[in-house]
Amino acid sequence: MRLAFAVLLTVLGAATGLMGGVLGRVELPLVLAVAVVGGCCGPVVSGGLSSLVARLSAPGADRGRAYARDAAVYNLASLAGPALAGATAVALSPAVALLGLASAALVAAALTASLPLADGTGAYSPGTGFWRDLAAGVRTVWRVRELRAVTAAGCLAFVGIGALTTTTVLLAESRGQAGAGGIFLTAFAAGGVAGAFALGRVRPAIRSSSVVVAGLLATGTGLAAAALVTSSPAAAGSFLLAGAGDGLLLAATLRLRADHSPERRRPQVFTIGAGLKISAAALGAGIAATAEVADARLYLLGAALLLLCAALSYVALRRG
User: Fold this and answer.
1) Which of 26, 31, 46, 211 is found 20 to 30 A from 316 (Cα to Cα)?
2) What's the rounded mean pLDDT across residues 231-253?
3) How far is 52 from 273, CA to CA, in rounded Å?
4) Which of 51, 246, 227, 261 lies closest to 157 in space, CA to CA?
């Protein structure tokens, strides 16, 4: 298992570094092809690595805290990574920024190879039937009620969350403060870190299913408030609330996947969940790309409505 993830991280790093080396020197289709190869490793790496937390932590409260920290680190990376890459691109060049990201992936590959994991029969490794294992993972997600509910709700939610990169910028422009879009996104990411860390410090009396619903409702409430308030500071506070809900949602989702997945299928379940979430976010971003400045509030309210529908669908699918 360590070898599989180390190889995938190495491919991701190599693809990113190659993009930095060929950017502006070769035809765009070739650059996009390299990006596709690296991008294919994204869900496997992000989802699969999170599945390892269950093997490195004891069931119960320890596992809950571990996944809360995993979610917090994920949100922290989503906050610091783009900021650092953007600053590097401005100060030096986009190619140097890509090479820096490639170096980070290669360091991660080396760290993954050092994890204290025993490659047993329950672990996926290349050559054991990728498509067969992937199909088995899909069947697991579909048949296990809790996994089906949280995956469906997460996909619906991330159609709305995926639109935030565009709608925050449009919201700031609609108020004559174009630079505030970055502040709104930063507030959302910071809220995610805070929400996940806070969950890690709460005693395990709160069920993960309740945290999922609370996270979805908090995120939707924050986005709706951001659309309705009139001042930028109040909007930033609303995005902070929305991000906190997203942090709760991520931590609880990871914990539910770990608890309800058979050990042998856990990497596939996490990978499928990550891939579907990324696809849903991409769909949301594509929809938001059609928006105009005047539509920003309407799109945010639409995203909030999707979060509410996600909460309702989660409750319904768990009971159905």
Assistant:
1) 46
2) 94
3) 15
4) 246
Would you state the torsion angle of the CA atoms of residues 283, 286, 292, 296, taken in this order, to the nearest 10 degrees?
30
* Cα separation, 211 vs 233, whole angstroms: 27
> Smallest Cα–Cα separation from 60: which of 265, 258, 269?
258
CA 135, CA 208: separation in Å to the nearest integer?
A: 27
Q: Are 313 and 216 in contact (CB under 8 A)?
A: no
Taking all residues of the chain, what is their mean pLDDT, rounded to a whole number? 86
The answer to whether residues 95 and 20 touch, using CB atoms and an 8 Å cutoff, is: yes
Judge whether residue 126 has pLDDT over 60: no
Q: In angstroms, rounded to a whole number, what is the distance separating the alpha carbons of residues 258 and 262?
A: 8
The set of residues, in sequence order, having a beta carbon less than 8 Å from that of 198 and lying 6+ positions away, is 244, 247
Structure confidence by residue, pLDDT tens digits, 19-64 = 877 766 778 788 888 888 888 887 877 777 888 888 888 777 778 8
Q: Give the model's pLDDT for residue 122.
A: 43
Instruction: Of 271, 266, 252, 264, give the one whose Cα is nearest residue 311.
Output: 252
Identify which has the larger pLDDT, 165 or 248.
248
3-state secondary structure the chain: CHHHHHHHHHHHHHHHHHHHHHCCCCCHHHHHHHHHHHHHHHHHHHHHHHHHHHHHCCCCHHHHHHHHHHHHHHHHHHHHHHHHHHHHHHHCCHHHHHHHHHHHHHHHHHHHHCCCCCCCCCCCCCCCCHHHHHHHHHHHHHHCHHHHHHHHHHHHHHHHHCCHHHHHHHHHHHCCCCCHHHHHHHHHHHHHHHHHHHHHHCCCCCCHHHHHHHHHHHHHHHHHHHHHCCCHHHHHHHHHHHHHHHHHHHHHHHHHHHHHCCHHHHHHHHHHHHHHHHHHHHHHHHHHCCCCHHHHHHHHHHHHHHHHHHHHHHHHHHHC
Pairwise CA distance, residues 67 & 64, whole Å: 5
